[in-house]
Design goal:
The complex is a heterodimer of chains A (293) and B (272). Chain A has 293 residues and is α/β, with parallel strands linked by helices. Chain A has eleven helices and ten strands. Chain A has two domains: 4-234, P-loop containing nucleotide triphosphate hydrolases (Rossmann fold), CATH 3.40.50; 248-293, no CATH class. In chain A, strands 6-7-8-3-9-10 form a six-stranded mixed β-sheet, sandwiched between helices. In chain A, strands 2-1-4-5 form a four-stranded antiparallel β-sheet, with helices on one face. In chain A, a hairpin with a 2-residue loop joins β9 (215-220) and β10 (223-229). In chain A, α3 packs across α4, α3 (102-113) runs parallel beside α5 and α4 (118-131) packs across α5. The longest helix of chain A has 22 residues, at 271-292. With 272 residues, chain B is mostly helical. Chain B has a domain at 2-145 and 240-266. Chain B has helices spanning 16-19, 22-38, 42-58, 63-71, 74-87, 104-130, 133-144, 154-184, 194-225, 244-266, and strands at residues 93-97, 100-103. The longest helix of chain B is centred in the last third of the chain and has 32 residues, at 194-225. The two termini of chain B are 40 Å apart. The chains are: A alpha/beta (293), B mainly alpha (272).
Chain lengths: 293, 272
């Protein structure tokens, strides 16, 4: 059984006003436990709506979301419990920081969850801070004194601290410098490896998705356009281009090489793959060349 | 939800009323609000109501939006009406129970007052639904410009109003975002007593204030960068000009005024 399933999930913004807009028109998908899913789609494709539906911040117009086989809206009063199980890190999460110290801000989620024991809270906060790559010395500082990247990671720690089964991150690297991005991505990878939790990463950066995701969910005009392994998705450069998306830059390089007549695969989507594929091709052509001589 | 607030919201459109000069709209609609109080018998009130409803349809904004605006204050309307009904003592007693007396005159009075409130709300909603905030403040600036003679900083006031209006939707959106982010961290905003609820607002208000200040600084810098130094010597991209339709609207409302006064003389007043 899949961990998260959605059935004909539909959502409309501003129903009954002139601004009415269908954001999701019947999404069906299944996500297994422990998977790392990349979510891509151009602006307005319904990605953000989808992730907010998954943790019960928005209520679907029609259709169902099953978490562990149970409809999350079965008991609307208990929807908060769902939010602890499906942790959502919003875009630009640093704007949600409010406490006097980073430590207390990270503790906000677990305290809402009802964790009272001081030792347990301490353990949770410190583990979350470590996962997010925050130094001990930062914990007693005011969150407003941190750098942009640190603020972002403090906010992510605040969600990790709820120890959710599923962690959803909406564009966690937006607006950060390359080093800040790398740090966040590698921390998320590490977190997932150590805890085995399910992670959904929404991103505009194909490179980010290619680096970390097992499977990629492609959204287009409120529909699930494709949902397949990263390899299979990035093979379809043409299809992605049609819906206004791109393949990672390395994949583009290999597509061009192919056009120039080189016998290389077009399912190359990370630097490591690219290196191997290029070496393989060069070796191959050299031996061929050798034979010709 | 916060986004359900419709009063003061602008609904873009291309109707006659949308296209009117905002200055004339303010003049005409303020006049209409005054006329609501002129109508004193069923005939004149009928004319006024008919006129307001026709103009409402003319805006091409769904009546449902007006209804939503009314929903917000129905309690006030009801409260005022009931109070008036019990307060006014006329000669024709219809109903009496202990100290409560309902007279025919009181009933008319309360009916008229409820109707007046409803009409005023529809008229003001009509103005904000059909006029963009920028147009509205431009019009106010122009209409108030004679006050410059008395050293009232009209331009600055209008600019402040424009900015305030401009940021209402932004801040509402921001509030909703922050609320969602804190809800995602399990913040409980819906239950508990007064104190608990007030405390639950802290995680929302602090980030909201911080972002409001940040936006204010950014806006000030952006205005400085574009050499904003106040109203002196500034010209407008879209100069407001009265057109035929504005004259037409003016005459129509003047006619309405005459009609109400005339109809008032045909039958005795039902309301003071």
């Amino acid at each position: 059984m899949a961990l998260i399933e959605t059935h004909d999930l539909r959502f409309v913004y501003g129903k009954g006003t002139p601004f009415e807009k269908v954001a999701l028109q019947g999404a069906n998908l299944a996500i297994n436990e422990g998977e790392f899913i990349g979510v891509i789609g151009h602006t307005g494709s319904g990605k953000s709506t989808l992730v907010q539906l998954l943790n019960g911040l928005l209520k679907p117009e029609s259709g169902q979301i099953l978490l562990n086989g149970k409809n999350i809206w079965e008991k609307p009063k208990k929807i908060r419990d769902i939010r602890f199980q499906v942790g959502l890190v919003f875009q630009y999460p640093e704007y949600q920081l409010f406490e006097e110290t980073v430590y207390r801000d990270i503790a906000f989620g677990p305290m809402n969850k009802g964790i009272k024991g001081k030792d347990e809270l301490d353990r949770i906060v410190r583990t979350a801070a470590e996962f997010a790559g925050l130094k001990e010395s930062l914990l007693e500082k005011s969150p407003f004194d941190l750098s942009g990247g640190e603020k972002r990671r403090a906010a992510i720690a605040g969600v990790i601290a709820m120890e959710p089964k599923v962690l959803i991150l909406d564009e966690p690297t937006a607006g950060l410098d390359p080093r800040g991005r790398d740090k966040i991505l590698s921390r998320i990878k590490e977190y997932r490896k150590k805890t085995g939790s399910t992670v959904l990463l929404v991103s505009h950066s194909m490179e980010d998705i290619a680096r970390v995701a097992d499977r990629v969910l492609v959204m287009n005009h409120g529909n699930v356009e494709m949902f397949d392994t990263t390899e299979n998705i990035f093979k379809q450069g043409q299809h992605l281009a049609e819906i206004g998306l791109k393949v990672p830059q390395v994949t583009q390089v290999f597509l061009e090489l192919k056009k120039l007549g080189a016998d290389v695969g077009t399912d190359v989507y990370t630097m490591d793959y690219a290196k191997n594929a290029a070496l393989q091709y060069l070796r191959g052509s050299r031996t061929e060349g050798g034979e010709a001589q | 939800m916060i986004s359900d607030i419709t009063i003061g919201q602008f609904m873009p459109g291309k109707s006659f009323i949308h296209k009117m000069d905002p200055r004339m709209k303010i003049i005409v609609m303020s006049a209409m609000i005054v006329f609501v109080f002129l109508a004193k018998n069923l005939m004149s009130m009928g004319l006024m109501t008919g006129f307001v409803f026709l103009s409402m349809l003319l805006t091409r904004v769904s009546p449902r939006m007006y209804f939503k605006g009314l929903k917000a204050i129905w309690f006030l309307v009801l409260f005022t009406a009931v109070l008036n009904m019990l307060y006014l003592r006329g000669d024709h007693v219809l109903f009496q129970w202990r100290f409560l007396t309902v007279t025919e005159e009181g009933l008319w009075q309360s009916g008229f007052i409820a109707m007046r409130l409803v009409l005023i709300i529809i008229i003001s909603a009509m103005l904000t639904y059909t006029t963009s905030p920028t147009d509205l403040t431009a019009a106010i600036e122009r209409l108030l410009s004679p006050l410059k003679l008395f050293r009232v900083p009209v331009h600055e006031l209008a600019m402040m109003m424009t900015i305030a209006l401009r940021f209402i939707p932004t801040l509402l959106e921001e509030t909703e975002k922050i609320m969602n982010a804190q809800k995602a961290r399990g913040a409980d905003l819906e239950s508990g007593g007064m104190l608990k609820r007030a405390k639950a607002l802290i995680p929302i208000l602090i980030p909201l204030f911080i972002s409001a200040f940040r936006r204010a600084f950014e806006l000030a810098t952006a205005m400085d960068c574009r050499c904003y130094t106040g109203g002196k010597g500034r010209t407008r991209l879209n100069v407001l000009r009265y057109k035929f339709r504005d004259v037409f609207a003016f005459l129509l409302v003047a006619g309405l005024c005459a009609g109400i006064i005339y109809l008032n003389t045909l039958a005795p007043a039902l309301v003071r």
